[in-house]
Design a protein that fits this description.
globular; 30% helix; 4-stranded antiparallel sheet; 12 strands; alpha/beta; 25% strand; 10 helices
Amino acid sequence: MRTTDLWTTRASKPGLQAASRARAWAPSASGPDCLQAQGVSVHAAGASLLQAVDLHLDAGEVGVLLGPNGAGKSTLLSVLAGLQAPHAGAVWLNQQPVSAAQLHRLARQRAVLPQECAVAFDFRVQDVVELGRYPHRQQPASHEAAIVQSAMQLVGVASLARRSLASLSGGERARVQLARVLAQIWQPSADGRARWLLLDEPTAALDLRHQHEVLLTVRRWAREQGVGVLAVLHDLNLALRYADQVWVLDGGSLVASGPPAHVLCPALLQRVWQVQASPVHAADGVLQLLIAGGDDTLPAAFDQ
């Protein structure tokens, strides 16, 4: 197998080029349906955005990427989705190397919800959700219209189907875009391999109820349909409630990973986010965190 097939590329410095050439990337010996990254590094304008990040998420699980602003979460999600090539390292989805050359195949197997979903034209809600079925246009299902309707119903936007997207609130537009990516992978893959949802801050524009409804929905898909879900979140308590695994990034480096109740301890929050946290348990027994600022003195930029 050629190195370029695994998206392993040479770094800019001669010493790193030799190390990159010497490293043979291969997926770990695990179940066939998983998302894996090994040694993923990304650079831009002389800055290191990601530094040798590893990740392994099994299908049927919910994973969450966490970290402060600028930690590299969205960059990592973009690499895992095949939308951006790393400068070093490799990515596999269901044991197949991820590459830009395979985006047409990936689009039938994994759906990506970016932070911003700009729409160039004044589409209706139903038109936007129908776009999710575009990767299947050459082999459409016998019930394409029903898939679109079901996806809208699942996230509570069916009543908005004929509304202009521009006329909706930010939260409503966010749920429409979620319906689009759900419609994209609505049916099981023809080859029986797992489907994947990669979501960049899917709860950012949502009110409290819809934040929980969205994460309940994708977790149900993971549990009942074996869909793998990886999301970028900022709310640590949502991660504690809904995630099976978390990865904490800081300055482009992976600083902690594992089950959220084990990873998200007060010491880590102080180190990464510079906040104080007190663990508590909700009425249903789920660990949650009471968070306060780490210092009574505001930074100069905020002390105005």
